[in-house]
Amino acid sequence: MCYAHNDEKSAACQGENFQDSGFQLVDSRRVNSNGQYPTGYYFWSSFFASDNLVVSTMALRFTQALLFSGLVAATALLLPRANRPSLLGAIAITFVPLGMFLIPSVNPSGWAIASGALLFPTLVGYLTTTGWRSRALGALAVLAGLLGLGARGDSAAYAVVAVLAALVITFKRSREYALRAILPVAISIAAVVTFVTAGQTGLALEGMTQKGFDSISPGKMLAENIFALPELYAGVLGQNFDSSDYAGLGWLDTPLPASVWALTTFVFAGVIFLAFRRFEPRRAIALTGVALAAAAIPLYILFQGHVPIGFQVQPRYVMPLLVLFAAVALSPSPQGTVVLDRLPKFTQIQFWIVVLLLSVANSVALFINMRRYVSPGNFNLNNADWWWQAAPQPMTVWFVGSLAFAVLVFFLMRKLQRDRLEVIA
User: Along the 425 residues of the chain, how does pLDDT read in single tens digits?
Assistant: First the structure.
C-alpha cells in the first residue's frame, strides 16, 4: 500500500515488512472462500503458497507463463496451418501490453485471457479435423474452457460467446457434426452454471456502489458510455482513461506513454482491416455477435452501477472479448478450408513494420513497468531502489526481455507467412 498510486515511490518503501520469509499460512477469508469468485484458480495457486512470499510469487509467475506457452505451442502444432493465424495472429496483435503483463501474473485474469485466446481456435480445430488430431484439440478446448470457468464469472460468459462463434463458423447439417457439437454445448452449459452461481456475477448484474455520479441521468450516462466505449478496449492496447485517475498497468497506477498504445493500435487496426478482405456471411454473423457482446456486456454493467467508462469495468475484464474478435476475424473460412486468393497476407515491408512496432511497444511498456517499482523517474534502471543484489542488473533484464520478445514476434510472423505459402502450394 505504501507505493500504490504514488509514482514517486518505489517498491522499496515496503521495507522489512516484505522480506523473503517470516510469513505464516492461514485460511483465506476473502475472494475465493466467500463464493465471490470461482474457486478453480485459487485452488491451483494454493499449491504454490508457502511461508516464503518471494518464492511463492515467482514460482506461480513462472508456472503461469509456462502453462500458457505450453498450451499455445501444443494448440499451434495440432491446428491445421490455415487455422494458426486465428491463434497466433490474434495473440500477437492483442497481447501488448496488457496480456504480457497479466499472463505471468498472480491475478486470475491471466487465466481468463488465456481462455479467451485458446477456446475459439481449439473448438474450430476440433470441429473441422478428424481422428486423433480432433480428439486432442477437443481435450485442449475443454482445458481452455476450464481455465476461464475457474478464473472469473465474466470469463464464463465469454466462453459461451466463443462457443457460439465456433458453432456459427463451422456449422454443418450432418449427424456427425451434431454428435461433435455435444462437446462445445457441454462447455457452454458448464459456463452458464458457473456464471450464474458466481457471487461476482451477482454484484456486476445488480450494480456496485460508486459515489459521485448521482447528478447524471441514466439515459445521459448510457449515451456517454456508448460514445466512450472504444476507450475501454483501447486500454487493452495500452491507452489510458481520460475519464478516470486509474490507468495502465499495475494497480491501475502505471500509465503508459503514447508510444505504446499508438503502435499497438496501429498494428491491431491494420491486421483486422486486412482480414476484412474476406467476407463470408457466417463469418460476418460470428463477428457481429462477438462485437455485440463486447459492447453490451460492459455497457450493461456500467449502466447498473451508474458509472462512466473508467470505473468498475477495467480493460482486463473485457480483454478476452477483444482477443476473441481478432481470432474470429483471422479464422479460416466457414467450411474449415481456406479460399486461397482471400488469405490475409503481408508484403515484406508490412511484415517488418508489424515486427518492429510490436517489439518497440513491448519494450517501452516493459521499461515503464520496471521503472515504476525499481527506480521511479530514472532512465537508468541500474540506479535501483529495489532489486536483488545477486540478480542481473535491471537494464540487462529489460534488454534481454525486449530482445526475446522481438525474436519471438519475428519467428511468429515468419511462421505464419510460411504456413500460408505451404497451404497455397
Answer: 789 888 889 998 887 666 656 667 777 776 655 667 788 898 899 899 888 888 889 999 999 999 999 999 999 999 998 899 999 999 999 999 999 999 999 999 999 999 999 999 999 999 999 999 999 999 999 999 999 999 988 898 999 999 999 999 999 999 999 999 999 999 999 999 888 877 665 555 555 556 667 778 889 999 999 999 999 999 999 998 765 656 789 988 899 999 999 999 999 999 999 888 777 888 899 999 999 999 999 999 888 888 888 888 899 999 999 999 999 999 887 654 544 344 456 788 888 999 999 999 999 999 999 999 999 999 999 999 999 888 999 999 999 999 999 999 999 888 877 765 444 43
pTM score = 0.92
Question: Using CA atoms, how far apart are residues 173 and 171, in angstroms rounded to an integer?
Answer: 7
Residue from 7, 33, 98, 21 nearest 375 by CA: 7
Pick from 350, 420, 421: nearest CA to 85:
420
Q: What nine digits make up the cell of 43?
A: 485452488
Q: Cis ω on the peptide bond leading into residue 97 (within 30° of 0)? A: yes
Count of beta carbons in the 10 Å neighbourhood of residue 242: 10
Given a contact cutoff of 8 angstroms between Cβ atoms, the answer to whether 217 and 336 are in contact is no
Find out whether 405 and 362 touch, Cβ atoms under 8 Å.
yes
Closest listed residue to residue 410, CA positions, set 345, 349, 356: 356
| List of residues 6+ apart from 48 with CB closer than 8 A | 56, 59, 60, 63
Q: CB neighbours of 237 closer than 8 A, spacing ≥ 6?
A: 94, 96, 97, 98, 260, 261, 264, 265, 268
389-400 in b/e form (b: 16+ CB < 10 A) is eeeeebbebbee
CA dist 354 and 410 (Å) reads 9
CB 249 within 8 A of CB 256: yes
Buried b (16+ CB within 10 A) or exposed e, 257-287: eebbbebbbbbbebbbeebeebeeebbeebb
Q: Residue 336: which of 123, 173, 179, 169 has the closest Cα?
A: 169
Report which residue type is found at 148.
G
